Amino acid sequence: MKQAKKYLRLAFLVSTLAVQGCGSFRYRADANGFNNAYADSANHQLLTNLARLDQHDPIYVLTFGQISVQYNVTSSISGGVNNTVPNTRHVPIVTETGSLGLGGSTTPSWTFIPVTDDKVAQLLLLPMQAKVFYSLFQQGWPVDQLLRVMVQRLEVRLPGRSGITTYPNDPGRCDPEQYAAFLQICAVARDLQKYGYLKLRDTDNFVVLSSTSEAPKPADLVTAAEKDLVFRKNDSGEWDLCRNEPVPTFYLVDGGGERFDILEEDSSFEDGLLERMRGLLEQGFSVQSDVVVKPENGPRIVLRSFVNALASVAQEQTNYNAAITASERRLSDSVTKDERRPILQLRWDNGEEKLLAPLAALDYHGQRYQITDPVSSQSDQAASWNRDVFRLLVALAAQTSIDTSKYPLPTNLQVLPSP
After folding, report:
1. pLDDT at residue 335, rounded to an integer
2. Quick check: 272 and 279 in contact, CB under 8 A?
3. Where are the beta strands (DSSP E) in 293-359?
């Protein structure tokens, strides 16, 4: 009898450990599975929208709501002991029986939410915030990719010229020479960044909300500080209630050192461009948008909206090729090698060039789209150019994601198999 109880206790211990191990294993497997499924779905959705924009179709965004998983893990154990003494023998016969059962089930549920919120629409359609550009640059993101993805145009006042000179980032739709100059500026900025001569810092920009002739009381100062506002005395002696909207501004360290002299040896740069770049950066190149309250008078970078950035990136492969063929002075001769490519190549010819396994791929209206790069033994920026740009778009898309907690009654979509 004691032996039987020992076996039952052992079986109970085994079943308990098995159930605990099964639960943790199921959790890890589901966490990894949902993570991979979300990543694949998000990549596929972004690539689908790029393909739509390449063919001038509208885009649609569907985001995940909360993912809820219920686990039901069960275990059972039973046993019995039968002690009998046959009539023909004096030695008892002990018969032991037992059974062990384990079970478990997972019931996942998730919510898909169509992105149609008015706040998200504003985030999609209004120019991206300068602080996003600032944050990405401070993280070490290649500035040429930031400029080519996020920037609509450069506005500068050149010496000896009246008005503003514009360098648009719009191949195929603007003057090819202006676009070539924009790419050259990107190349110069990237070179200066790599060698530590290009920095970005916040410049105070106080926007006046209201004015009063009376000096603010201590209580007014405290209330303003709680709202991130400040009082400043203006030239007329009145007190302005202001909100500080810092403007990120590029500046040169040590005048660019020897890099400008080295870059001048590259014959592909337009005559006088490097000297103009040095002068503009010494003034400070602000990062702004068309909707700022107080635009800077100096050189500035005008940012795109996220939708405009997606459309421009999606269509640049076609427009870039059009700009090359339309230019009297071919872009392939007037642009440095590092920038002599569309910002993102989505369509690839089936030539001899070997490609890496695509991060995402799909067929849309008879055209194959994929995120990949040519196989390369190098580890430089060019070896992962397309995947890095796609990763940048994913980071920017996160800036326009909705807060699912704002949807108390989310839309549940049930996907039915096609007949």
Report:
1. 80
2. no
3. 300-303
Judge whether 270 and 240 are in contact, CB under 8 Å: no
- CB atoms closer than 10 angstroms to residue 31: 11
- In whole angstroms, how far apart are CA 274 and each of 55, 181, 239? 37, 11, 44
Ranges in the chain, pLDDT < 70: 1-27, 29, 63-123, 290-297, 326-332, 350-352, 400-419
Query: Cα–Cα distance between 183 and 320 in angstroms, integer?
Result: 11
pLDDT (tens digit per residue) in 98-134: 555 555 566 666 666 666 656 666 667 788 888 889 9
The predicted pLDDT at position 411 comes to 43
| 357 burial type by CB count under 10 A (0-12 exposed, 13-18 middle, 19+ buried) | exposed
| pLDDT number for residue 119 | 60
Helix axes 306-326, 118-125, angle to 10 degrees: 30
What is the maximum alpha-carbon separation in the chain? 125
- Residue 230 CA to residue 1 CA, distance in Å, equals 84
Task: Give the alpha-carbon dihedral of 52, 55, 57, 58, to 10 degrees.
Answer: 50
Q: What are the pLDDT digits (tens) for 336-395? A: 888 888 999 999 986 667 999 999 999 999 999 999 999 988 888 888 999 999 999 999
Indicate the SS3 state at residue 199. Answer: strand
Closest CA to 339 of 173, 150, 189: 189
221 close to 204: Cβ distance less than 8 angstroms: no
> What is the spatial distance between Cα 23 and Cα 28, in angstroms, rounded to a whole number?
9
First to last CA, the chain: 62
Nearest-10 Cα torsion for 333, 334, 336, 342: -90
What predicted TM-score, i.e. pTM, was given to this entire model?
0.75
- Residue 286's pLDDT is 86
Tokens standing for residue 301: 């970078």
Q: Residue 274's CB: how many other CB atoms inside 10 A?
A: 20
Q: Give yes or no for a contact between 336 and 342, defined as CB atoms under 8 angstroms apart.
A: no
Alpha helices for 245-305 (secondary structure H): 259-263, 273-283
Distance CA 340, CA 177 (A): 14
Place of tokens 């972004």: 46
Contact status, residue 286 vs residue 247, Cβ threshold 8 Å: yes
